Amino acid sequence: MQYTIRPAKKEDYDVVPELMLQAMEDIVFSFIQSEDIEEAINFLTILFRKTDNLYSYENTFVAVDHEDNVVGSITGYNGDDFEKLREPVLSLMKEQYNNNLIPETETEGNEFYLDTVAVSPIVQGKGVGSQLLQFAIEHGKTQGFNQVGLIVDLENPSAMKLYTRLGFKQGKAIDFVGGEYYHMYIN
């Protein structure tokens, strides 16, 4: 089945933050200093519905089925804007959770950076993730980027295998919020 990919709408907040949580669960728990799933979804929902931040609907595309049900999402942005887009996230962490953590930088810039990629469990294994990634790669190229990058958890070999199959190359290892990741990229 082929899915339609469209820009996310603010109204997609009822589904997309749950997908984002699936993609970054441990990281969000570090941000809110709790493993409360509802609070993590609340945190991501606040950010998704606002503009000009890492997790905004403005930076997200969704895969929808023939009934316009969201079944996957991918969030990406200009890596050169990372610091500016991260500021509202850090502010919310500090204001709402009294968390002064400043996570390591995920991108060195000069790339279209893919922050989260997630697929609903009901359609996993049906090509939605590949379709979202191929869309994002093409989108990055049409926006004038020479490189599309992301980080992948070293403990997620299936994701690494998917990215490699799509042409991503393994870059350097990085530490991020207590985990070990590889930066992967495609030119």
From TrEMBL:
The keyword Nuclease does not apply. The keyword Transferase applies. It holds the Pfam family Acetyltransf_1. Residues 3-187 form the N-acetyltransferase domain. Keywords: Acyltransferase, Transferase. It comes from Myroides pelagicus. GO terms for molecular function: acyltransferase activity, transferring groups other than amino-acyl groups. This is GNAT family N-acetyltransferase.
